[in-house]
Amino acid sequence: MSKVIGIDLGTTNSCVAVMDGKEPRVIENAEGARTTPSMIAFGKDGERLVGQPAKRQAVTNPDKTLYAIKRLIGRRFDDPQAKDLIEKAPFNIVEGDNGDAWVEVDGETYAPSQIAAILLQKMKETAEAYLGEKVTKAVITVPAYFNDSQRQATKDAGKIAGLDVERIINEPTAAALAYGLDKNSAGTIAVYDLGGGTFDVSILEIGDGVFEVKSTNGDTFLGGEDFDSRIIDYLADEFKKEQGIDLRKDKLALQRLKEAAEKAKIELSSTSQTEVNLPFVTADSSGPKHLQISLSRAKLESLVDDLIKRTINPCKKAMKDAGLKPSEIDDIVLVGGMTRMPKVIEAVKEYFGKEPHKGVNPDEVVADGAAIQGGVLQGDVKDVLLLDITPLSLGIETLGGVFTRLIDRNTTIPSKKSQVFSTAEDNQNAVTIRVFQGEREMASDNKILGQFDLVGIPPSARGIPQIEVTFDIDANGIVNVSAKDKATNKEQQIRIQASGGLSDDDINQMVKDAESNADVDKKLRETVEAKNQAESMIHATEKSLSEFGDEVPAEDKEATKKAIEDLKSVLDGSKDEIEDKTQVLSEASMKLGEIAYRKAQEEAAGQTDEEAADAAAKASESDNEDDDDIVDAEIIDLEVEDDDDENNEEKTA
Amino acid sequence: MLKQTSGKHMPSLNTKKERSVSYYEILNIEPLASDEDVKKAYRKMAMRFHPDQNPQNRRMSELHFKLINEAYSHLKTKKQRSNYNHLMHIDAHNDNTFQQNTSWISTLAALFWPTNNKS
Predict the structure, then answer these.
(1) pLDDT band at A652, cuts 50/70/90?
(2) Integer Cα distance of A492 and A254 in angstroms
(3) Which of A4, A54, A237, B101 sits a CA distance of 20 to 30 A from A534?
(4) What distance in Å separates the CA atoms of residue A483 and residue A493, rounded to the nearest whole number?
(5) Helix (H, G, I), strand (E, B) or coil at A457
(6) pLDDT of residue B17
């Protein structure tokens, strides 16, 4: 049976872990990093870059580099919080056919679930490379305060990536699992999770292997990205004061500013002063402009003070819902990169009145917890049980547009509740059940999850019919709502499931696209590799030709030259063509290779001619096998050089 | 448009007419149990009957766990227990009324989880 992997799909970084025996283990990606930037880029040739490679080229390709997609997932285009990203992001956010916020690159539109799926695929591949087997099942985490659409859209992303999402679990809960399993502890803990895009706080009681979430609260639009924004605005304002140019209007400059802001923020967690230096950030008629502004920790703290304060109110609400006082919390677990900021730690300490726990890695603990839950679902991890809750109240609209709750927030799931309602008018023969999620008193202020009609109610005076409405949430947080007329036993129900904004057909199509894209990407990569190999072969042969061309028979020389020209002419062709011609060149230039090799031998070792000839002869015997290896090695060198060049360009651009 | 009916709704499992088992029986505790006892019992029951612990029997265990949750949510605190006792006419000082029924949970368990001998 294939392993259930745990994925922390973050706003700015993602992380994947699996159970390795009794311990969760974070897996390094192909680039050797334990977390992967949650960025996707579409390159010039249409190739897709994921993670670090996407981040590295963001500055030069801002409108085709997608980040913070988690802030859009499961949101409507007209959602005020989606608007915020629409204003700030250099890439295009458009209204999808279903009214959701989608992104557009090169005239193609993508659902956020599709973009998230590309990231999930990368995490899946990372796990597969480590495990050496196919992975089909995953536990994916979401912010505890995500609503039903956001959860569903995340689940859809998993499906598109070819993963059976065994469970969506809450990030702070996952963190608590990892913390608790490690310490084998009992007591009441608070998890304070300030990530790249979202803030969550959860209160849990741990004992006898049961992790019971008591309450949760949060803000799905408060995180490191907002801290970065404040720094960007400050730097841009300062620059404007000095130079009169607004860098926010220049996509390229804005992207560099964004990178610099993130870097400065991180540095200021360990130093008290840093310098933001962006040479040639822009130019006007008077010439190039450089940005050089120093930023102190105190200044940063003043810029983000209100953001940090905004985290305390959800803490208070969560404590109130759990019926606890801050002094009753035994331990506070900090999660998310932002909790490295001294001012954040200070705020937590001040509210809870004690030093927070420092034993967990804030970047990895959520993926660890997801892997543990994966292990529980697989039956590998015994005697651990997670009892999660629904973060937001669920109910229906009743007379006057009032929101009537059936399932209160912080109810342990799975759960089932029923309540009897009646008609509001005489002879009313049908009722519309409108299902909402949220905490506001009026239904329309909450998020609508779906609606359905119950018809055929026998005519009678208002208040007489008895309509029993039942809400049923399973362990995955999927909500079923049914309504039954007790007089006729007529029943209607709706599975609140397609609310991720994508229909099953949409998802199936996207799964196909993702699969074929993976094929296209693979082909593209192979073609690029073949091309690189061919180019380095041409380069090496031309070099030998100019040095030793006169020492080979004229016909060999001509054949080599022709083979080079032939290969050059197919460089933009298919992988097979390139490989064929590369092979021809390799054979034609064999003589040349021998001579070049012998010369090199002579020079390097200063050997006698005979010995060198022997060595060369021996070498040429195994020439064919060696050839590939030699060329491969050159390719690797060339690629590294290319990368360096790019980096240099970025630095000096 | 729907209209809310007057009055608080009754616990769905235990309307007087349909009375079969009490919340105490579901958690396998006595009405005199302390808060700590109730919590311990709930954890024990959850560990045994939660669907995640019974992957071969998800559907039934989910139904069962929902009942356990419902019972716990009504018996968590002393005040809740006293309200419930009043509503159900349970005399907390004389628990003869359901002594005869305490085997309910084991009967149900035997039905649904014949091979599960965890406890």
Answers:
(1) very low
(2) 53
(3) A54
(4) 6
(5) coil
(6) 41
